[in-house]
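Entry 14. Structure prediction run on the chain below.
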Amino acid sequence: MRRFVSRRDFLFEAGGGLSGLGLAYLLGQDGLLAATAGDSCSGGTAASSPYAPRNPHFKPRAKRVISLFMSGGVSQMDTFDPKPALSKFAGQPLAGKGEVVVRQGHPGPLMPSPFAFKKHGQGGLEISELFPNVAMHADKLAVVRSVKGRSNDHVMAHYELASGSIRMGAPSVGSWVAYGLGSENQNLPAFVVIYDARGGPFGGPANWSAGYMPAAYQGTIFRSKGDPIYDLKAPQGMTEEQVRSRLALLEKLNKVDLERNPGNSELAARISAYELAFRMQGCAPEAVNVESEPETVKKLYGIDNPVTAPFGRQCLIARRLCERGVRFIQLYHGGIGNQGTDTWDAHGNVVENHTQHCAETDYPIAGLLTDLAKRGLLEDTLVIWQSEFGRMPISQRGLGRDHNPGTMSIWLAGAGIKGGQAIGASDEFGYKAEQQVVTVHDLHATVLHLLGMDHTKLTYAYQGRRMRLTDVYGEVIPQIAA
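Output returned:
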């Protein structure tokens, strides 16, 4: 009989050094242990691993996902959704839209964008001057200008984009992908998270939680500098052979216990966690070693510039993880600290805030798209750029913009998606999604579709119900699926 181990029990048994791996999945069946990895960091033996590759429902267009999350709430009318009407009616109140609900108060009149928009690419996609380098890839981008959220609270909005639910406790989209498809590399986690060096995003670890699924599917935090995972290295003075010998002895002793207690799947899961941790000691540091890249590649990502270097390192690591078969890579830009400058939360001054953060991300993102395309990886890699909500078309204290879940802009690239197109539309002021409204459930259904999974068939049994990432909702965005 197959059973699942709780995260609490796993963390207790496996110890703090392995807790970040989140690998508490039931691997044991009748005493079957996880297999030893191969010699290469690019593969490894799947055997009974929870990350063993699984067949999709139909032929996929994407094998992996890179999610670029701009934490804090990007202003759509200042980046990817131009609104000339804001200039025409500047200084007038936002009227005819019903009750206008703001998060922090101090609502002002309509405020035009201080940034110029230009048409780019063969499709004439309009993009703000804030993203001059990303704009050079306009014909790769499908911009959805009518995504609607459900909360104007940072934390709940983060959870919705991460899991489809505004409450913590639901598995993240990365967890669903790892659960549905496994991984192409048994020496690295299937779901990796790298967040801003200034701090994690709003909502913290619940953004990459496996929720009610086995903890094996939760995201594993990688750092962009130094040791990729805390406590991953062997104790000082201990050789690889000594570590291997200790694990071999533990395996023999644990096998005896499993033979006596064949239903003890928690023990099998713990053994598997130790094995993966051992394999990662060699593979994880190599995966994040951007210093091994040629200078031309590091320059492509802006690592030679102190402004772009932090996010450039994250993007370059994402490409390296793609090459090594990691299934879902979540990057966060914007970390909780001094929220006026460290996230995209532009309450005080949208010009200063967005100028800073676009300067930090524009060049690295363009470099990532260039590099993926050059290496043939963009053909089967889905890249998503997103935030938790948009901003208000009215001013806040004259210079800033408040939260607005009524509409936001996201874009997708790669995986055979037709670029150079704008999908859906917000109203004339960018206040609410109006044409072809896209919910977060629709977005998640589309992501799974590109990965070859039917969102209505990818389910997990929990408390007597077949749970889905998209709950009982979700429609695939037709222009993306075409």
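The first strand starts at residue 64 and ends at 70.
Filed with the rest of this week's runs.
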